[in-house]
């Protein structure tokens, strides 16, 4: 058999239905806004929790700095008043409880400064504490009866 000439005797197939239009499912029209209603409160709680956790971390860092400042003061002075004042000045936004051991110090003694504070987040109370240790610096100057300037603690 011979081949038909171009366009002669050729049939083309056309779809029998109407042309397809873009799909729109009317049942899914508000799904994105419904998902946002469920997700946004969870994201807000997560962000709030992160901010409060960062506040506790900040307080811990301040507490450690207050303990270090207290220890630096304790190695050069005697008594507890100067140590407590220095530690509270290092973290004025916290209500600190400061413990100095020993209160009366001599050259070469180890002094321990403990600092405590509390932080409340909702119903949970966090008790934060820090500790710093230092060795008391020796007294510089002539004998104890001399009038030369002294550096270090002066024990009674």
Protein model, in words:
The chain is rod-shaped and about 120 Å long. The model has no long low-confidence stretch (mean pLDDT 81). It contains 2 helices and 3 strands. The longest helix is centred in the middle third of the chain and has 44 residues, at 31-74. The chain has 156 residues and is of the alpha+beta class. It has a domain at 34-135: Pantoate--beta-alanine Ligase, Chain: A,domain 2 (2-Layer Sandwich), CATH 3.30.1300. It has a 3-stranded antiparallel beta sheet with strand order 1-2-3, with helices on one face. It has helices spanning 31-74, 81-90; strands at 97-101, 110-121, 124-135. A hairpin with a 2-residue loop joins strand 2 (110-121) and strand 3.
The span between the termini is 129 Å
CATH architecture of the domain at 34-135: 2-Layer Sandwich
CATH class membership of the domain at 34-135: Alpha Beta
How does the major sheet shape up? Answer: 3 strands, antiparallel
The radius of gyration over CA amounts to: 38 Å
Which residue ranges are poorly predicted, with pLDDT under 50 across at least 5 consecutive positions?
Answer: none
Strand-residue proportion? 15-25%
| CATH-defined topology of the domain at 34-135 | Pantoate--beta-alanine Ligase, Chain: A,domain 2
**What is the typical, i.e. mean, pLDDT?**
81
Structural class comes to alpha+beta
Helix and strand string, N-terminal first?
HHEEE
Shape: rod-shaped
Biggest sheet: strands side by side, in what order?
1-2-3
Helical element count? Answer: 2
């Amino acid at each position: 058999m011979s081949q038909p000439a171009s366009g002669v005797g050729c049939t083309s197939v056309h779809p029998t239905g109407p042309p397809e239009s873009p799909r729109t499912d009317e049942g899914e029209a508000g799904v994105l806004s419904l998902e946002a209603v469920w997700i946004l409160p969870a994201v807000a709680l997560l962000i709030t929790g992160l901010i409060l956790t960062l506040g506790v971390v900040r307080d811990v860092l301040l507490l450690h700095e207050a303990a270090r400042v207290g220890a630096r003061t304790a190695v050069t002075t005697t008594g507890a008043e100067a140590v407590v004042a220095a530690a509270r000045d290092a973290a004025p936004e916290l209500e600190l409880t400061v413990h100095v051991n020993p209160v009366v110090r001599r050259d070469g003694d180890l002094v321990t400064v403990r600092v405590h504070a509390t932080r409340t987040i909702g119903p949970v109370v966090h008790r934060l504490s820090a500790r710093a240790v230092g060795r008391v610096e020796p007294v510089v100057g002539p004998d104890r009866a001399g009038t030369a300037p002294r550096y270090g603690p002066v024990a009674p």
